[in-house]
Write a structure and sequence with these properties.
This protein has 275 residues and is α+β, with helices and mostly antiparallel strands. Helices cover 28% and strands 24% of the residues. The protein has a four-stranded antiparallel sheet with strand order 3-10-5-8, with no helix packed on it. β1 and β2 form a beta hairpin. α2 packs antiparallel against α5.
């Protein structure tokens, strides 16, 4: 297998998830788009990566309580943008447009505390972001984007609940075990020198077996991505400890993480090493 250019071999105990761009369809299920991995994609014939789905347009939300239009220039990561969330709100939809249409990341309240996810991607005016709203939610929108970006956000407050897909919740939870096995294998062999190459290979084999089982049982949009991930892990990085340093891994891992984030069932790492 011919692998793409590896990222610098900086050793690390755990990897932060790349939050990628996706869109949610309120009341009609979750559809997402994949973010391109950094650098030129060079998938091999054996490990063909499933093409990402197109970004959907958002239909008008039913049960609209009220709307709000906000705008600004550059990131709002320190104080955030206050939202006027009315009583009875159960979901918040935000249609974001930017000029220039570069990348953004948006977070509603404290995602980690709420068990939700920040959402990110190209600010191309072709997606609507959606979050559940609950008693613990905070009406502050945090935005990260280019300093010169002029942005406008059309916010819709709906009395309909966010349509979280329980199948995706379960599959993203299982995939988090796969992702954890791979990142722990790389960290344990490389940065911490906790075991040898044979153990690294055993751990990656275990991850490949788990995602193969997941691909066989999946009934969601993630099924083809799981199959592609199995191919990537089975083919293996030629460098022990470098599974997470090849483009082909991220070409598949990023779309999975993005689809899970859109459903607010974010992929996470159970770190075995580090503190």
């Amino acid at each position: 297998m011919i692998w793409g250019d590896a990222a610098p071999r900086a050793r690390r105990a755990g990897l932060s998830l790349v939050i990628a761009a996706t869109a949610a369809l309120l009341l009609t299920g979750c559809v997402s788009t994949a973010v391109e991995a950094g650098g030129e994609a060079r998938p091999t014939e054996k490990a063909a990566v499933t093409a990402p789905a197109p970004s959907p347009s958002m239909p008008p939300a039913p049960a609209v309580i009220s709307t709000q239009l906000i705008s600004g220039v550059g990131p709002r990561a320190e104080d955030g943008v206050p939202l006027d969330v009315p009583p009875g709100t159960r979901s918040v939809l935000i249609h974001l447009s930017c000029d220039p249409a570069e990348r953004f990341t948006a977070e509603l309240g404290d995602s980690m505390m709420l068990g939700q996810a920040p959402l990110s991607g190209p600010c191309d005016d072709a997606r609507t972001l959606a979050w559940p709203w609950e008693a613990r939610s905070t009406g502050v929108l945090t935005l990260w984007m280019a300093p010169e970006a002029e942005w406008e956000a059309s916010v819709t407050y709906s009395s309909e609940p966010f349509p979280q897909d329980p199948v995706l919740v379960s599959e993203c939870e299982t995939y988090s075990n796969v992702y954890s096995q791979v990142t722990n294998a790389d960290a344990g062999f490389g940065f911490y020198a906790a075991f040898d190459a044979d153990e690294w290979n055993r751990r990656v084999d275990a991850a490949a077996s788990l995602v193969d089982t997941l691909a066989s049982s999946s009934t969601s949009v993630l099924a083809p991505y799981f199959r592609s991930m199995h191919t990537v892990l089975a083919e293996r990085s030629p460098i022990p400890g470098g599974m997470t340093e090849v483009q082909e891994f991220w070409q598949v891992a990023n779309p999975i993480s993005e689809i899970c984030a859109t459903n607010h069932s974010e992929v996470y790492v159970l770190a075995e090493f580090g503190g």
